[in-house]
Predict the 3D structure of the following.
Amino acid sequence: MRSLQGLACAAFLLAQHNQANADSTIDYSIGSGWSSNIFKDPTTLSTVFGEAKVGLRGSLALEDAQLAYGLAASVQRVAKYPFASQSTAGVELGLTRDIGEAIKLTIKGGIEHRRSGDIFLALPGLLIGYRKADIAAAGSIGVTVKHNGGNSHITASLSSLDRGRAHFTLAGLRPTQLEAGNRLYDLTAGHIRPLFGGEVGAMLQYRTNHIDRSEQKTFGRFPAETLRGSLAYGRVFGNLTLLAEAGVVGVASANLGKSVQRLRPFLKGEAGWQLPREAVLKAKVGRDIQLADIDDALGEDVRTIGLSLEKALTEKLKLTLAYEHAYSDWLYYDYRTRTKTATATLSYTLAKDATLALEYSRLVRRESDEAADFKVDGLAARIMGSF
């Protein structure tokens, strides 16, 4: 809890600093719940947990610039399996500056410390777990230029994940790194302009994922790169808002098999419909190649479909239903996964901008290896708010 206490003190001091030029908000959430499968794997070990989150977000007006900042910390305690407890603490900064009337410069950066744990080996009568600490960092710089009735932009970004050593619950096992880290470089450029009552855009993106040579064969993770070109169009039709983007993405790697398809469709679609009686229906569809935060050794072709419905039952009571289906085709291994998630949340607005939420969630995972299939049912109650 020390990270939460330290962040709360820092958030209070920043919120009070120079309030005439600052705009800040403190967000918080505290709750508890139950999971039928706390590790989200075939072991299906159930338990209860407690959680808390606190964060500060705000901005400072500087001369010819705007500084945005954010601090956040979270903790989840699992009393039955202490090594499964999780915590995060991070900071983000962003600077926006106008250079003349037509050029805007944006710089962002952040770093987060993550502590988590998992099962290393599960046998009848024996459960060996581990805990580790990872460092995630990200930074970007972008320029937007207004010209000829439209906006052109280019952004270069870098995100990295440094893996820590695993410390095991069984005495005698030496701390050992279990996963490879990575550095993902991204260069994106595009142009957006008005067309037929909406906006049309053209985008070009290059990404390359670097894995240290010393970790490639040890942990079975390999570098790859992608190049994407796409066209997008968005428009508001009364109560209906539509955004569609389609194109082609190509993947390359020295470790990619010859039979693997190099060129694949890229798709991103979003729709929002304001229904009568204070209801909002949203839909999304997407397809892209992911190079980071994956289970495959190289990359995954991920397709997603999602639906959500928000309905105000009374002035203070709201119901939210959400469903998502994700299908992943691995590029290095001949393997596929399918994940279905559904949530139902009932929230009630209390006094002083606080909200009480009750949530039920269900996750179903299917893999090429049926022995790796699992399900997760969860219940949680939270009080959250801002001030």
Summary: The first helix runs from residue 2 to 16. The mean pLDDT is 93. The two ends are 21 Å apart (CA to CA). Residues 161 and 244 are 31 Å apart (CA to CA).
